[in-house]
Amino acid sequence: MKSGYTISLFIALSIVLAACTAATPVATEAPEPTAMPEPTAIIEPMKMAKPAPQDIVDIAVADGRFESLVAAVQAAGLVDALKGEGPLTVFAPTDDAFSALPEGTVEALLEDIPTLTDILLYHVVAGKVMAADVIELSQAQTLQGQFVDILLDGGKVLIDNAEVILTDIEASNGVIYVIDALILPESRDIVDIAVEDGRFETSVAAVQAAGLEDALKGEASLTVFAPTDEAFAALPEGTIETLLGDIITLTDILLYHVVDGKLMASEVVGLNQAQTLQGQFVDVMVDMDKVMIDNAQILIADIEASNGVIHVIDAVILPESRDIVDIAVDDGRFETLVTAVHAAGLVEALKGEGPLTVFAPTDDAFAALPEGTIEALLADLPTLTDILLYHVLEGKVMAANVLGLDGETVATLLGESVDIMIEGGKVMIGDAQVIITNIEAANGVIHVIDAVLLPPA
């Protein structure tokens, strides 16, 4: 019964469908194509939202291993700095590193924001320094101002006393290295370090006798070339006792060992000279693997202090105690000049406090003058005096300063100006070439020239 009903229903449906087909006209033209949606209309909803890049703070917060570090950064008010554009390199101690500190240290630091800030900034270096670059360095300057030491020991990379355990975590504003210990900047000043070291007892005694202790413990950043006790012991017998009884000379010598500003070894080797607090310049020379400061060799470099850096040297260096006239007399190449200075009555002026800059013609320079000129000048003291004063500038003008005067005219003690020109590597003062520079005297500096300068008529 169910099968017959099904067949009848099928026949009925077929008749209905045939009738519908007959009633529908057949299209003679293809329908207009339906415009396809733009590709983006299909693809865009399928795109995954790309997460915004995370900065150094975001990464540290999300990581979970730096809760103590994040709390310290927030307490020190450094969040905005570490979320800034940078780029920065951060050596990030883990929570385990903080936990390894003596009990109560973290709490004490959170109560001492200046110290905490110094420590945190000591973990940050300006710029984005990836691991491949870090292993090429021996030091890097931190935002705190001091330098961290970088050492490759076997397969380990050490930042001061901390081992790098994870490298190159890149952030939108820099890179993070994970380290296993806190690194601490030097908190002792120059005097503290010298006292505690034990190799500088004579230096410390001299500094105290000269009343320079406060200056070397101050905030100003200094570079000290520190002679060892052995260096002082090598001085002639009785010298130290004599100096301790002559505080003015002792002070001059001590200040000659100090340069304003913090010069690390890498900067020292790039110099020819450095001006000391005494006023004169020390000569810097790199001889093979030796770095010499005047006659002293640097034995140990880059002992950092909270207010500068110490370089240990093996000899006491002495400022020039002779004045301009003394040096000219002792030199032997300026006999005619010395005779002229005596004749013109200028000895006392050139032996005074100054400072003065003298362009000193050699005996050969005077000999090149027309025959009889020197004799004529010695008989005409006003003219001779004018010529000599035309060779002298007020103030101490070192070679580096002279180079900066290219194309300028400078006033002499005569009142007339002389031209300074640099031509093909030669420094010319008027018509004379400077052949030796920076012979320092107690009261100025001498530059040797190859011709006598004649003032305009």
Low-confidence stretches: 1-31, 33-46
Count of DSSP helices? 23
Number of domains: 3
* Structural class based on helices, strands and sheet pairing: alpha+beta
Work out the helicity level.
Answer: 25-40%
CATH fold type of the largest domain:
FAS1 domain
CATH homologous superfamily of the largest domain, by name?
A: FAS1 domain
Instruction: Give the neighbour order of strands across the main sheet.
Output: 2-1-7-6-5-4-3
Distance between the termini: 146 Å
The CATH top-level class label of the largest domain:
Mainly Beta
The CATH architecture of the largest domain can be named as: Roll
Strand tally, please?
21
Q: Which secondary structure elements does this structure contain, and how are they paired or packed?
A:
Elements (H helix, E strand, L loop, with lengths): L1 H22 L15 H5 L12 H8 L3 H9 L3 H5 L4 E6 L1 H5 L5 H6 L2 H9 L2 E3 L4 H4 L4 E3 L5 E7 L2 E4 L2 E10 L2 E6 L10 H8 L3 H9 L3 H5 L4 E6 L1 H5 L5 H6 L2 H9 L2 E3 L4 H4 L4 E3 L5 E7 L2 E4 L2 E10 L2 E6 L10 H8 L3 H9 L3 H4 L5 E6 L1 H5 L5 H6 L2 H9 L2 E3 L4 H5 L5 E3 L5 E7 L2 E4 L2 E10 L2 E6 L8
Parallel strand pairs: 1-7, 8-14, 15-21
Antiparallel strand pairs: 1-2, 3-4, 4-5, 5-6, 6-7, 8-9, 10-11, 11-12, 12-13, 13-14, 15-16, 17-18, 18-19, 19-20, 20-21
